[in-house]
Amino acid sequence: MVIDGGENVDEDLRYQAISRVRRKIDDELTTDVEVLRENHPELYEELRQVVCDPEGINTSSEGE
C-alpha cells in the first residue's frame, strides 16, 4: 500500500496519495456525512459508530 510508506514506495507518490485522501475527506466525505445525518439518521449513526469506535464494530449483517 502506498500510504503506509513501505520499502519500495516513492515518497512523491505517497504524498500524492495522501493528498487525494485528504481532499476526499474534506470535500466528498463531509458532504456525504451531512446528507446521512439529515436524511438517514440510522445510517449516520452506524457510520459514526464505525469511525469513532472501530473496536466496537458489529460484523453481523443485522439491518441489511
Radius of gyration: 16 Å
- Helix coverage percent: 55-70%
Ends apart, CA distance between termini? 30 Å
Poorly predicted segments: none
Principal-axes shape call: elongated
Query: How many E-type strands?
Result: 0
Class derived from helix and strand content: mainly alpha
Helix-strand pattern = HH
Query: Quick one: biggest sheet?
Result: none
Roughly what is the average pLDDT, rounded to an integer? 83
Number of distinct helices: 2
How much of the sequence lies in strands comes to under 5%
Question: How would you summarize this macromolecular structure in one to three sentences?
Answer:
64% of the residues lie in helices and 0% in strands.
Task: Describe the 3D structure.
- With 64 residues, the protein is mostly helical.
- It has two helices and no strands.
- Helix 1 runs antiparallel to helix 2.
- It starts with 10 loop residues before the first helix and ends in a 12-residue tail after the last helix.
Walk me through the topology.
Blueprint: H1 11-39, H2 41-52
Brief descriptors of the model:
2 helices; 0% strand; 64% helix; 64 residues; single chain; mainly alpha; elongated
